[in-house]
Amino acid sequence: MIIGLIIILILVLFLPFTKLVERNLEVFLFIMGVAAVIVSQAFTMDILKEALIHPINITLAVLIAGLLFRWFQAPLEKAILTMSQAIPYRLFIGLFVIILGFISSIITAIIAAIILVTVLSVLKMDRKSQIWTVVLACFAIGMGAALTPIGEPLSTIVIGKLNEEFFYLLKLIGAYIIPGVIGFGILAALVVKTPDKNKQNKLSNQTKVEPYSEIIIRSLKIYLFVMALTFLGAGFQPFIERYLLDLSPLVLYWINIVSAILDNATLAAAEISPAMSNPVIRDILLGLIISGGMLIPGNIPNIIAAGKLKITSLEYARVAAPIGLIVMIIYFIVLLIIG
To answer: Transmembrane residues, as ranges (predicted)?
Structure first.
């Protein structure tokens, strides 16, 4: 079982960067997910039911958002362009990333990701600026959404498992998350390239209406993507429970870098226990939350944004993996100092 799961983990980490798998990423991850639950002998009817039901809400949200943007494209574009031109462009991008990161804890990470792709679809950034903004915004959303049990499944599971009150995570990790979200916003403002306003208006007027078929196909791909991640998480859970849970929290902090390809909610469910102290829970959660932004499968916002804006796994990883690693190191040093 161990050898089989390690092989699957390696394949999931590296094959998405090949052209063949990149074009069929959802199918590839689905096959790997099914293989994982078979190898670990974790396949049950309950897991199958969860895999079929879990993606429905996400898929519907993406489908409805795609349809609404198509139907109200002109007024939405006008409103977004007006806001982006009312204040300095870099300031607009920085504030947009910061605000999106914080409100994701209230409106959910899914809705925040949909807002992100809607705005970026209108702004018509150059490719480099667009990828950097997506990556930094997804990091901010992934971190901010963890502050309340509304924001994302990870925080919902942790609050439920620990039987804690609504603002528990805000009190526990808020002092670490809030500076991180602000930092990603500042970095976005610094790296983005200010477009020519006349060119921006001209490009906006040339925006094509997205066909219904593309909206539906993208929604179905996201359904298959989330279903695949559910299987992967379930397949690796027995391995995690057997070999990882007795490790030091700071060791788990680094091992949780696998959250870049596995569902961090599943990892949190396996690793977090009411018997743990707050510092231990803090260390584990920060590792899960930060590393979730490093690759496309790591978080739902990454999946939604990359799918809509056609960002490849390699394009995303070139920016996100180094940033995520640097942020992991910074937070690790902070945790060592604080203890």
So the answer is: 28-45, 52-72, 92-119, 131-148, 168-192, 222-240, 252-272, 284-304, 316-338
Q: How do residues 35-56 score in pLDDT, each as one tens digit? A: 999 999 989 999 999 899 989 9
The total of structural domains in the chain comes to 1
Render the burial of 174-207: b for 16+ CB within 10 Å, e for the rest: eebbbebbbbbbebbbebbeebeeeebeeebeee
Determine the structural domain holding residue 67 and report its residue range.
Answer: 2-338
Asked if 310 and 13 touch (Cβ cutoff 8 Å), the reply is no
State the pLDDT at residue 201. 55
> How far apart, in whole angstroms, are the C-alpha atoms of residue 44 and residue 41?
9
pLDDT along the chain (339 residues), means of 10: 88 88 88 94 91 90 89 88 90 97 94 93 91 97 95 90 92 97 97 75 60 91 89 85 80 91 82 88 95 92 92 95 97 92
8 A C-beta contact, residue 288 and residue 264: yes
Render pLDDT for 61-75 as a digit per residue (tens, 0 to 9).
Answer: 889 988 998 898 889
Q: What share of the chain is helix, strand, coil (3-state, %, to 5)?
A: 80, 0, 20
Q: What span, in angstroms and rounded, lies between the C-alpha atoms of 319 and 317?
A: 5
DSSP per-residue codes, 265-324: HHHHHHH--TTS-HHHHHHHHHHHHHHTTSSGGG-HHHHHHHHHHT--HHHHHHHHHHHH
What Cα–Cα distance (Å) separates residue 157 from each residue in 58, 61, 139?
A: 17, 21, 20
